[in-house]
Description:
The structure holds two protein chains of two kinds.
Chain A: H1 2-19, H2 25-36, H3 42-57, H4 60-67, E1 80-84, H5 94-102, E2 106-110, H6 118-127, E3 135-138, E4 149-155, H7 158-171, E5 174-183, E6 187-191, H8 197-208, E7 218-223, H9 227-244, H10 254-264, E8 269-272, E9 275-279, E10 289-294, H11 297-307, E11 311-316, E12 327-328
Parallel strand pairs in A: 1-2, 1-4, 2-3, 4-5, 6-7, 6-11, 7-10, 9-10, 11-12
Antiparallel strand pairs in A: 8-9
Chain B: H1 10-24, H2 26-35, E1 49-50, H3 53-56, E2 69-71, E3 82-84, H4 88-102, E4 108-113, H5 124-135, E5 142-143, H6 152-161, E6 164-169, H7 171-179, E7 190-193, H8 206-217, E8 224-228, E9 237-239, E10 244-247, E11 251-257, E12 260-264, E13 271-277, E14 286-295, E15 301-306
Amino acid sequence: MINDFQQHIIKVENAAKAWLQPDNLKLKEAIDKTVHEGLFSFEDIKFQIRALKQNIDSGQIAEWAKRAGLSGLKNSIGKKVLCLHAGNLPLVGFQDALGTILSGADYYGKLSKKDPHLLSSFLEQLKEADLENEISYSIELKTFTNLEADKLLFAGSESSIKSVRKAIDQIQGVKPDGEWVIRKAKFSIAYIDSEEPRVIEDLVEAVFRYGGRGCRSVAIVVSPTRFSKLKCHFQDYVEAFWLKNPQHKKPKEILAYQFAYNKAIEREQAWMNDFLIQETEELPELDFTLHWVEGDHQKVKELKKKYGNAVQTVYTTGKKIEEIETEFLSMAQRPSLWWKPDGVSII
Amino acid sequence: MIVPFSKDSFWKKALWVFNWQKKNNPVYSRFCEALGIDNIQSIEDIPLLPIQAFKDTKVITGEKLPDLYFESSGTSGMQRSRHYVTDPEIYQQSIIEGMNHFYNLDEFVIWAYTPGYHSNPHSSLIWMLNTLIERDESGLSKFLEIGKPINQHELKKIKQSGKRLMLFGAAFGLLDLLELGNPEIPNDSIIMETGGMKTFKREISKEKLHQQLADGFRLPKQNIHSEYGMTELLSQAYSLQGEWFECVPWMQVSIRNPENPMEVLPKGEEGLIGVIDLANIHSCSFILTGDKGILGDEGKFKVLGRWNPQNLRGCNFLIDQD
């Protein structure tokens, strides 16, 4: 049994590696379709795939299984897990799908209509890997009618949870006593105390990749330096980033409204074509915005406490901040496979 | 005079106020300039200033900072809205004329049960209730003592005076009052609920609240009315039946697209409540609230709670989109 499960891990790893081969036609086709349909930019997809390839080539699948203590005795074989995948970033559901399948559980994935091709090409690869667990996916929720899963994974907010619960109850997608794992983190915070090119490059990547979407993206910067002092310097880096990675989605008119509001109240800000940087401590509610706050470690702790579970991660450029967990800023968009959404391990 | 040109249409008055405030209110002026708005063709073209401005800055039309201001309630350390009131008489008239638009105020004795509000010396609600209480010459109108049940003897006095009772209070204040005792109030009384359905401790739907108030006060449900007002507005809207609010003649509501507040949404579509309140002549009359609502017939509107923008960012599985 133990050896069987080791075989399972190896099969998953081999399938993932095969999927990421440059000559994999299925993946290439999925990328082409995604770009052709205007769902994500080619640059963002390539970035995501490159990050996954680096992690998987460095043996992170086996390492993840080891960290989770997976074995023939400890696994999720026989459990049904229903994953509702969001579609705000390319392959945002990859980690949930991989983690579920790696654990030995039966995977049922409701793919997002906004990202239907990429994850399905990976799942098809896994299906061919002769795994014993069930792998089933669809973009229609009703496919999972009467599934009665043991566990449900999804990312939501207070207002969306209600409608998801209703829809899941209607189709009896989860057992009445099933486990609901709901992620509520919305954004991350970075503490920046250096103006070194490497740091600013990492920050730009952490803020502007995927148009700032995703809970690992930085939406609040805390820095001892006021934004007005860094403004020109920072803008050069952003423009350089956009030359290589044109922003795919454009902001709604509300951003221009916010710009006008900032003018009205004389708030320091920078309007950068499709992105707004503003000096404020307010909750970053709008897409395509970065909030810049002048402050020290204490301010970071204060904001983390204030925004509670809306904060995914606090990044630093090296030095730790006492009493809170931090990650390296350079890892913001390249997390290890075992990173914990909302601080909770997937496996 | 609450409205300077009483013979003109609302649009003409609004246009005049827009030009006046664009010229004399520095905050609104910068707002319009940044949006590139100078001349407007219709009332819908008037930009609505986000209500947050009353927290972030001083919103005044004119040069002098008046002594009187209203401030929203909140816990210490919380950012509060501050509304400077240059001409208190306008607010006074707006309150009285506004209520008289829907009720005959002379028929009523006003009682107010407002626990928590007295700790805020700048509460606009307390100022409003004071105005209503002071104008009643019968001497029967008053603030009820906090923590004390309604006195039957005093109810009798109202009956004897030939007047009706209008009892004001925020949602949980009124429910707390009911817990102090089950008063037998005259069945032509009006309960005027002033909002506050969601506090940091408790939450109740409007429908449930009205039912509980009707049951508790032993009144028909149609006698439970609501007021929609806020620190940042000098006018109020009232709902006399159900959940649909009606504005006073110098106030107008539109529903705006949260992703583009310059766009007015059609009847029945949910969005942000936008208010034009001409009584705000000395501050800003064009306000985008943080409330969610829908528009019904004849300019009536329904309040659906606070707009929750957290769907707009982060990973979020949306059943109708993903």
